[in-house]
Amino acid sequence: MPSNHLPPDDPASTGSSDASAAPRPSSFASNRAARLVADIGGTRARFALLDEQGAPQQVQILAVADFAGPVEAIEAYLDEVGCNGLQAAAIALAAPVDEQEIRLTNAAWTFARSEMKSRLGLARLLLLNDFTALALALPHLAASELRQVGGGKGVALAARAVLGPGTGLGVSGVVFDRGRWLALAGEGGHCSLAPADGRESAILALAWRELQHVSAERLLSGSGLPLLHRLVAEVDGRACVALTPAEIVAQALANDDVQCRAVIDTFCAMLGSMAGNLALTLGARGGVYIGGGIIPRLGELFDRSPFRARFETKGRFAAYLAAIPTYVMLAPTPALLGAAHALAESEDGP
């Protein structure tokens, strides 16, 4: 089996941190009614089997680049945990999932849903966007799985928003309606990125020379961090040495490089502006949640960053936003939890 654990300093992932649940003794080996949940991003693919209570167990994280496609990765996972077959699966993907053919936005995997269902011998296959799954997890996260950064107490049944920079930038939310939480499926990470001051205008002016459309994901993601690093250096008049996303984050955390700190502060400020826009758009008085693989790694550096100030800097609606809590998600595999709830609801439906 290919190397199935990514290095812990890789910041580009959908989940909120690099931790994973330790494998448990398999109770699924001879059970062809086993149910799988997965969270597949541009860098990592997380897999788990559901226990009798519908909770994800035997979590493993595989490298997307190690496999030709999702079926091969799932088969490798099932072999590793000793599961002989599946009855159902809910797979969250960093991609639009409305078509018959699915293409990951930030990875080379392309597959047909009918082929996946057939090759895995599934009676039921549910595909959903990875941040739709993440949004479905929000009402079920424990207080210990969150770190609040600013704001007051969320309104219990008000809308909640989630965004998170990993390999790409995911955006979603949940609204409560008629006794249940409904997730919003969209591609908000690809909305146009807007500047909030002259310095950001200069950064975006440079980006527009290189890209026809500068979406938020182009700069506010693991894949966009090296570009932002280069653009910030040019605007600030500093020399720029090419660095990977992991190196930029590591040097900023170690306070070893003024340029890396400047880049992370700019990253967090722009993310704060986007999070505030999302809170206003959804009326997310239940809170705004930050997932993905980058922000949870920043720890107190994120808490001290311009993120929260920029979140609230919305003119006449500053007081409205000041009351809304923002949370960093600390749960290692929250999208798996959301996928499990989505699968349970699909099984209860028609």
Q: Would you give an account of this structure?
A:
The protein is an alpha/beta fold and 350 residues long. The protein has 2 domains: 34-135, ATPase, nucleotide binding domain (Nucleotidyltransferase, domain 5, 2-Layer Sandwich); 142-329, 3-Layer(aba) Sandwich (Hexokinase, domain 1). It has 13 helices and 13 strands. The longest helix is centred in the C-terminal third of the chain and has 25 residues, at 258-282. The protein starts with 33 loop residues before the first strand and ends with a helix. Mean pLDDT is 90; it is low at 1-10 and 16-30.
* CATH architectural group of the largest domain: 3-Layer(aba) Sandwich
The total domain count is 2
Computed Rg: 20 Å
- Residue stretches low in confidence (pLDDT < 50, at least 5 long) are 1-10, 16-30
Major sheet characteristics: 6 strands, mixed
The CATH topology assignment of the largest domain is Hexokinase, domain 1
Helix content: 25-40%
User: Strands of the biggest beta sheet: in what spatial order?
Assistant: 8-13-12-9-10-11
CATH class of the largest domain: Alpha Beta
What order do the helices and strands follow?
EEEHEEEHEHEEEEHHHHHEHHHHEH
Number of continuous helical runs: 13
- Note the beta-strand portion: 15-25%
Structural class: alpha/beta
List keywords for this structure.
Hexokinase, domain 1, 350 residues, single chain, alpha/beta, 13 helices, disordered N terminus, 5-stranded mixed sheet, 36% helix, Nucleotidyltransferase, domain 5, 21% strand, 13 strands, 6-stranded mixed sheet
